[in-house]
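Re: beginner question about structure tokens

> Can someone show what the tokenized structure looks like for a real chain? I only ever see the sequence side.

Sure, here's an example I had lying around. Input first:
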Amino acid sequence: MLERYFEFSKRKTTLRTELLAGLTTFMTMSYIMFVNPAILSEAGMDKSALVVTTCLIAAISSVMMGLIGKVPIALAPGMGLNAFFAYTLVLTQEISWQIALGMVFWAGVLFLLLSLVGGRERLMRAIPSSLVAAIGAGIGFFLLFIGFKNLGLVTADPATLVTLGEFTDEVLIGLFGLFLTILLMVKKVRGALFIGIISSTLLAIITSKVSMPASWFSFDFDISPVAFQLDIFGALSLAYIGPIFALMFVDMFDTVGTMVACAHEAKLVKKDGRIERAREMLAVDAFATLLSGVLGTSPTTSYVESASGIAAGGRSGFTAVVTGSLFLLGLLFIPLIGIVPPYATAPALIVVGILMLAQIQRINFQKYDDAFPAVLTIATMVFTFQISTGIAIGFLSWGLIRIFLLRTNEVHWIVYLVMVLSLLSLIM
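And the corresponding structure tokens:
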């Protein structure tokens, strides 16, 4: 039955290969079980419940992608999106996390509608590639800064705003994890981020900085502190239009970028260049974002780490089903996940931030009408600690430059719409 449903023969794969590929993908993205609760708990949400929700949404969405999308791409709460949720929306803009979850829900609804009616393609073609690259790079810098802060390497200073922190035992443990992770990645060791987090936590336990939990396993899966707590109607304020669109844009960019990269690796691209089952993949991803708001976490997106499972031979949706099932198994280890300190997860934030910075290469710095808005986008994100503001400034500056230069034919009507929404968001 598995052979017939997942078309192992057609995809030139086997059950054993798919199992190994699913395990490989899980190992490379399992760090999110530790990092996502650590980030979102800073917004005042219950950390234990977040661990359950993170594993649960990753399991549900990955299995759905395998069964409906039939592709070897796994999903989980997105890096960058979780930072946007916690640090920009809740901590900086002082929006309650319940309303922020409502915003995640509406971003998912918009993404789903666009995916079902085919509007995603038109939207992606309309948005300047330089701004897409700048948003990715800006989030990379954002994650780097948060990683350095959580590590304790950067602290507040009244004179210079930030300064180098003291090299305490915790900072040294975090630096050990960072360099170990980097060395493992250079050696192309699968699960480098996961190994780095576990190694730092073990060192913290050995040095008595962290205490072992009373039990290693738990069957107490309580998500009630965060699940179904979203404020759907509270998120419909005009002031939240910009952030909702920002959530949708970032989620969409992540998904499309991952989809394109992984589809080519998995030989899912047709002769005319179209990606097989693209609409199904986008619909599952969008529904996962909508469900994230309901279950109590930041938006879920497709993970580029799925490429590791594809490299291990994964070609069918069964790879994603295996990955999702392993996330369910991770629920048993909630007590162990709960003791992981912020300085142990900080290296993962730093490394993911560095990887996202690669997108800056796609910005043509010799073309000033593209370069200036791109740099403004990145700088505003980092210096104001607000991702949505950076996106708004980027669109406004890109469009206004062309309007003042009488090159309005270069500005798609969708970009004009985004500019108006961005302006409303900044005013409100």
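Each token stands for a local structural state, so reading them left to right follows the chain. Residues 39 and 83 are 7 Å apart (CA to CA).
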